Amino acid sequence: MKKDYKSGFVTLIGRPNVGKSTLMNQLIGQKIAITSNKPQTTRNRIQTVLTTDDGQIVFVDTPGIHKAKNKLGEYMVNVAERTLNEVDVVLWLVEPTTFIGAGEQHIISQLKKVTTPVVLVINKIDSVKKEEVLPAIAAYKDVYDFAEIVPVSARNGDNTDELVKVIMKYLPYGPQFYDEDTITDQPERQIVAELIREKALHCLQEEIPHGIAVAIDSMKVRNKVMHIDATIICERDSHKGIIIGKKGSMLKKIGSTARYEIEKMLDQQVNLKLWVKVKKDWRDSEFLMKNFGYREDE
Fold first, then answer.
1. Containing H/E element for 101?
2. What is the pTM of this model?
3. Which ranges of the chain does DSSP label H, i.e. alpha helix?
4. Distance between the two ends of the chain, CA-based, in angstroms?
5. C-alpha closest to that of 215 among 193, 236, 234
6. Which of 209, 207, 214 is nearest to 238 (CA)?
7. How far is C-alpha 132 from the chain's CA centre?
8. What is the pLDDT of residues 87-118, one digit of tens each?
C-alpha cells in the first residue's frame, strides 16, 4: 500500500433528476444506480466504489433532498440530510442555469449546517452553449462558499476525470476499505429488484410514477440458470391492470427488458418470473416500507 494512499466517502446530492445516478454509473463504468427520467428513482443509499492507483472513493448516493409529502418521502429526506455530515466530501449536482430556485435554496440552507467540503458539479454542460456555463458558475459562487466548482457532462463523460482528481484532493490519507474488484456493497437481490423497477418505470407511462416497489421472492441457481421470482407491488387495482397490460403484454415487456439487463450484470442465463400485487398506500405504511427494504437504521 502506498504511503500517500487516500480513501474516503463521498456523497452525491441534488434535486431529483439532475443526473446523480448517471454520473455515478459514468464514474464507475458499470450500471449500479438505476436511471430514469422520472424523479425520485433512487430510494436507498447506494454504495459504489472507485479504486485508482492514488486512492479509493466510496460513493454514497442519497435520495434527492426535497420537501417530503409522505412517510417514504420523509425517510428519503432524513437519509439524505444525515449523510451530509458523515462523509468526507459532498458533491452537489446542479443544472447549468443562473436560476437558483426554491429547491436549490432548500439545499443551500441544509449545506450551511455542515462543515464537510462541498464541490459544486454543474452537470449537463452538453445541453447548453459553452458560454452559458460561466454565468451559472458565477451565480452559484454568490450563494455559497464552495471548495471547488467543476462543470461536467455525466451522460458523455466530459470532464469527469477532472472531477475524480478534485475529489481525491479532499480525501484523507488512509487504507483501502474494499478490494480492488469491489464495485458495490449492494446485495445482488437489491440490485436485481432495482433493475426490474427501472424497467417498469421505463415501460409504463406517467400513470404510475413512483407508486411501485419490487420484492424479490426467490433467487436460486439451478442447472447454471439463475431462477428469479419477483413481485411488483403497486398501490391501486387500476395500476395492476396497467402493469399487466392487454393479455399480459406490458408485464412481458418489463420482464424481457429486465431479464436482458440482469443477465448482463450477473453474466449468466436468467429465468425471470414476475407477479403483480396491490398493497394500498404502502408508501405511508412503516411496516410495508420495512418489508420492501427501506429501513431507517441503514
1. none
2. 0.59
3. 20-28, 71-86, 102-111, 133-141, 160-170, 188-203, 237-244, 249-266, 286-291
4. 30
5. 193
6. 207
7. 27
8. 899 999 999 999 998 888 888 988 888 889 99
